[in-house]
């Protein structure tokens, strides 16, 4: 079965990653070597003969493993935990299973903040620059909006220090306002959304 196991979690939560092997109740961890590793090369947690043999600094005090079903718990989640994890189990030096789980981590964006400034004013209408921004979330978001329930395209820009850092997103819109309008800005990320509505 090549089905991809996928687990989703939010920053700060506790997540459990399933392993491909359960130790029978008649046996114990003592007869096994278990490696939980990330992106094939980084060991997260490893046990041999029932003892923890490796738990690097980044995962110390954030990880634990169930001694029977070998589930890996990570808490609290960080954006950097995003990635693919393998559970490799050896019994009498034979590999009994080696399977991966993909972990997607999301971080909540702030409620979008909408500001509007007049860029040009005439008797009939007012040209306004409307800016919507939101920050602190992950992964890279989409930004959408409506003006009086008609959908609008924001001119969007994103800032992030690295591919695994929180994003700041800013959308910009220039609009001629002739009457009061309702403007809504929504930031969507990994199935979640935050939105704000403003009356101009």
TrEMBL record:
Pfam families: C2-set_2 (PF08205), V-set (PF07686). Keywords: Cell membrane, Disulfide bond, Glycoprotein, Immunoglobulin domain, Membrane, Receptor, Signal, Transmembrane, Transmembrane helix. PROSITE patterns: IG_LIKE. Residues 1-102 form the Ig-like domain. GO terms for biological process: cell surface receptor signaling pathway; cellular response to lipopolysaccharide; immune response; negative regulation of T cell proliferation; positive regulation of T cell proliferation; T cell costimulation. It is a single-pass type I membrane protein. SMART domains: IG. It is found in: Cell membrane. The keyword Amino-acid biosynthesis does not apply. One of its GO terms (cellular component) is external side of plasma membrane. Its main location: membrane. PANTHER family: T-LYMPHOCYTE ACTIVATION ANTIGEN, T-LYMPHOCYTE ACTIVATION ANTIGEN CD80. This is CD80 protein. It comes from Calyptomena viridis (Lesser green broadbill). The gene is Cd80.
């Amino acid at each position: 079965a090549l089905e991809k196991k996928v687990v989703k979690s939010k920053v700060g939560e506790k997540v459990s990653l399933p392993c491909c092997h359960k130790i029978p109740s008649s046996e114990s961890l003592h007869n096994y070597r278990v490696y939980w590793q990330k992106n094939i090369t980084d060991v997260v947690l490893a046990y041999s003969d029932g003892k923890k043999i490796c738990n690097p600094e980044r995962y110390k005090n954030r990880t634990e493993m169930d001694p029977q079903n070998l589930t890996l718990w990570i808490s609290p989640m960080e954006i950097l935990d995003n990635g693919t994890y393998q559970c490799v189990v050896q019994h009498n030096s034979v590999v009994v299973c080696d399977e991966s789980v993909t972990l997607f981590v999301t971080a909540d964006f702030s409620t979008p903040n909408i500001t509007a400034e007049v860029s040009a004013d005439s008797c009939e209408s007012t040209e306004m620059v409307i800016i919507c921004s939101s920050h602190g979330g992950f992964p890279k978001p989409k930004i959408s909006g409506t003006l009086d329930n008609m959908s609008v395209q924001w001119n969007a820009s994103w800032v992030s220090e690295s591919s695994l850092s929180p994003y700041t997103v800013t959308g910009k819109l220039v609009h001629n306002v002739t009457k009061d309008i309702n403007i809504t800005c929504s930031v969507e990320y990994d199935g979640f959304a935050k939105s704000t509505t403003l009356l101009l």
